[in-house]
Amino acid sequence: MSGNAQRPRRINSLNELYHFLSIPLVATFTLNKRYIHSEYKLTWLKRFRLVFKLWRNTRRIETGTSYKAQAAIAAKLFEIPKSVPGVVVECGCWKGGSTSNLSVICKIAGRTLIVYDSFEGLPEAEINDRYATPGTKGAFMGTLDEVRGNVARFGFVDVVEFRKGWFNETLPKHAEKVVLICADVDFQASLHDVVINLWPHLYEQGYFFTDEYMLLDYCGMFWSESFWKKYFDCGPPGLVGSGSGVGVGQYFLGPFDWTVDPTSIAYTRKDFSGHWNFDKDS
What we know:
The protein is built from eleven helices and six strands. The chain is of the alpha/beta class. It has a six-stranded mixed β-sheet, with helices on both faces. It is globular and about 50 Å long.
């Protein structure tokens, strides 16, 4: 277990202080009770405790997404009634920081979290993948024992099911209905595997989140009419937050200045449409 997973870090910068002081605002506005289904009975105090735990865990385990992005994921999951069947799926979990927080969220939602990861780091580069190179193989690795240990310590491992292997081998076997997908998979080929294999299982008003929102060509999959026509015979769903992330109180002008805290998230929903069908001359 890493040092970050063993003990919380001190608030040692204005940046971290800003995020700490934002916790009540995130509990109030990101987890807006107006949009949370009444079945969850989430009072403001319960929402505050959830957001605080999300923040605390991101300081104990290094994660690829911020606690604010994870709160946004929670907000969308809590829109879906408990009566709708389906699991939450995470593709790519690194050290298990986001997994721990997703398990906390799933515990409240009464849902199983299925985690797909090689637990060997990133795969070998595929031809034509812009973001995969020979030097990236094995990056962002967390072993299954390490991830499971972090979830057991900081989340709820009893709601999590781990499925080890490369996406192109494991995802075609997925059978469960899905209400929400979180994909932090880095490579274009990996995103292709995730969408092709999991989108058909997604609830009609289910959500798909991606962490690679700052890469416009990566986001382009969700706007590509040719891709969605070829594989699903429909128009593209679009992607809210393409290029900049959704508004969760971050500050990011982007797309490549990493000094300005680009730790938001982007999402779409299965029934959204990013298809341009207006023709002035028709």
